[in-house]
Amino acid sequence: MQLKSLAAAKMTAKAAALFAAGALTLTACGGGNSTPAASEGGIQLINAGKLTVCSDIPYEPFEFEKDGETVGFDVDIAKEVAKDLGAELSIVDSSFEAIETGTALTQCDLGISSISITDTRKSVMDFSDPYLDDDLTLVASEDSGITGLDSAKGKKVGVQQATTGADYAEEQGIEAQQFEDTGLLVQALQAGTIDAALGNQSVLGYAIKDDPKFKSVEDFATGEKLGISVKKGNTAMLEKVNGTLERLEGDGSLEKFKTTWFGETAK
User: Fold this and answer.
1) Residue 209 has what pLDDT?
2) Full-model pTM
3) Can you name the CATH fold of 2-132+226-262?
């Protein structure tokens, strides 16, 4: 119950932060004029000279705070997109629910937050080319008795709300406890208030890599691919983002980022 209260409070704080960002945007554009400002490359940006990116923080190792700075795999990619646009990177901490429904794109130029590309999401936003394959996994404590999805039924399983992991749990008949972000989900797993967590291999694998009490008991080949979200119809921005991803793939930078944040076994 305490964790759920924390999640609700955090969601409220993130919503307030997102609206505050919108207020700042209007001020920067000049007294209520919300017309986006053009960057040096001719791309329309919400804030002049800044690439504003919405991310759900924390979601290690994609985006999280370390020594007062936002870092992670997604952040490294965002920095490269900003560099190619000749803009300063500005990251807004948003709830994942706002990101995956496209609401966040009213205040941000891009959503970069380990977003799985789905048909439902494609109906309300456009996506870049995929930049990472990321299937689902079930992680459980050694003493939980859980060896797979079937044995998890009737146990306390946690998921992050509004994610493909939450959808998959429901499809499989798992009544999962939902958490507002992965930080709270992992905290609950470590505290023993849930027996298992269902989510993407990348983030859950990273969370338990140094803790022998937990293991991945079953993987699910869902074919998930992560992409960067762009406001629907913004083809100029989409082309620019895809150009950056193509450059990073071609010069080996993307592979270096994967090794840095996920280790040598990264896909």
Assistant:
1) 87
2) 0.76
3) D-Maltodextrin-Binding Protein; domain 2 (3.40.190)
